[in-house]
Amino acid sequence: MNVPSDKALVPFVSVEDMLALIHRHGIRNCLAELADMIEADFKRWPAFDKTPRVASHSKAGVIELMPTSDSVDYTFKFVNGHPSNTKVGLQTVTAFGVLASVETGYPELFSEMTLLTALRTAATSAMVTRALAPRTAQTAAIIGNGAQSEFQILALASVCGINEFRLFDIESSATRRCIANLEGQSIGLTACSSIEEAMQGAEVVTTCTADKSYQTILTDNLVGAGLHINAIGGDCPGKTELHRDILLRSEIFVEYPEQTRVEGDIQQLDPDHPVTELRQVLTGEQPGRTSVDQITVFDGVGFAVEDFSAMRWLREKVAQGAPSEMLDLIADPDDPRDLFGMTKRFIHRAEQTA
Amino acid sequence: MNVPSDKALVPFVSVEDMLALIHRHGIRNCLAELADMIEADFKRWPAFDKTPRVASHSKAGVIELMPTSDSVDYTFKFVNGHPSNTKVGLQTVTAFGVLASVETGYPELFSEMTLLTALRTAATSAMVTRALAPRTAQTAAIIGNGAQSEFQILALASVCGINEFRLFDIESSATRRCIANLEGQSIGLTACSSIEEAMQGAEVVTTCTADKSYQTILTDNLVGAGLHINAIGGDCPGKTELHRDILLRSEIFVEYPEQTRVEGDIQQLDPDHPVTELRQVLTGEQPGRTSVDQITVFDGVGFAVEDFSAMRWLREKVAQGAPSEMLDLIADPDDPRDLFGMTKRFIHRAEQTA
Prior knowledge:
- Two copies of one chain form a homodimer.
- In chain A, helix 2 (27-43) packs across helix 4 (149-160).
- Chain A contains eleven helices and 15 strands.
- In chain A, 54% of the residues are buried.
- Chain A has an eight-stranded parallel sheet. Chain A has a seven-stranded mixed sheet with strand order 2-3-4-5-6-1-15.
- The radius of gyration of chain A is 22 Å and the shape is elongated.
- Chain A is an alpha/beta fold.
- Chains A and B meet through helix 1, strand 3, strand 4, strand 5 and helix 3 of A and helix 1, strand 3, strand 4, strand 5 and helix 3 of B.
């Protein structure tokens, strides 16, 4: 045999393949399906192995492995965070991931995850907003108009039917780029010159800022009754976006308390400050919003289960014909106990070819 | 631009590429270079981040991530262990790995590691044998003639100049296959019908058995003065190969005591039983073999630093022209803050092409 067998091959979704999937399937469909997939997996939360992420820190940044599994599928994501990368024309955050079978340990999917993480992060915010924001919400403020902003806006539009967005960034060029990128999407987009202006009339606010040193994006006086806040940018120790006083008069919802108390905005609070797990709201075990005046905060940090859901979704898409290529990744000897025999057969093939 | 930029591309060494490298470069050269690379990295042991492996256990087996890094390079290996896989024609153990830059977090190499792990495991045993066995050793017994056996034999031949091997396996077909696979290598190979027979005249013995339930491969009466033992197969909790009494009268050498006391043959001993770290022998901080009569045991379990060395070696080979292909793995927007812009450009391209 001159070609690797089926057992050797693992589907690979490249960046170009992911762009093609987004283009063909429609980014709004992708975001809406991901939101449903993530919600479904949050509802069966106890089924997951919640291993903490494994971080390797250096002066320049961090490289993390984020594994999780249920009884059928295992996934992990490799993700880096290197703030100074942009100075040399590289991404601050890049990612790739693998889905493997728990039964055999064999990889079943290898994928770029820089784009897929952007999609799943936005889909998660939108899924949470659907569960917690006032049902009548029409207008959202987006504070921080960087790499996540367009994804967040499209997800809120697709999943929650929000169609008016008020944008602010300390760099007005970021706001202009965001608006230009979303031209033709039939979404109302207003550039604002201050956070105060962006908050006017907003029933939902998403903070997705990137600067580690800019610590209080939202101050207490800006936050009125009935608001739902997605605090997405405060996602590591030393990085927060909300003033502590906002948190003290809000109901706080988190992905996984053990992780969020270290990485999220609630690192500012006492370690026993009451928070509600999202999954409990989604299954109905705990109430979400209980009054129109309540302030609800989603303190999002990103969790491995969201990547798991995203990879499950992607595997479905690939099975349905989404673009991918096959990688010859797994050594597949004729006899599993005879790995060395592969090297001999290669030599025979090479001699025949020569 | 219709092609991904250089920053998007990561070299990938497939199974076929690895077979081609082994064929072109010669497996003995590969093993000898790997032994030197692993020795060099063991000598600078304190430079490494020694994160414990992250294991996900299920009824069917285990999936592990093995990360490590120095100040320049980060590597991790994905490896599974599923004993019942052979029943359905799959490998018990498969692996792949990634080498990334600590400075940027960007992946620099993605590779199959089923074959590469077989090479590095054998190279490690041989490197240790070179350091600990009697210098006059000519003959080795190989107990367990499964997937690792040919690699172990070729590594001992290449690195230590051992040229007589006495083979035993409870399945004689495994021994026959091993001998057939090594035909033409100018190595003396003798099939033996018992462990006792295999041990006759051996100055080195390598145990590389796979069966979890077959717990005492070497009994005390079989082990004479001056022997060097590589105990490779006992590598997880509940799996050992040497009778405890052998360990009690030997000098024991390990990769990393914290890991070996859990996974290695020394799990049978008190947690404070004295062992010597290999790296200390290699740097001269501690003596290795101190007399011709001494029994030395390498209780090998496999450590992430060995994979790190193997991936460094492979990166060198790829830089020198070893076969690989480029994977479009990293999203590379024109402006790093404009990830969404990539989806727009793709649409424009698609429209132009249509």
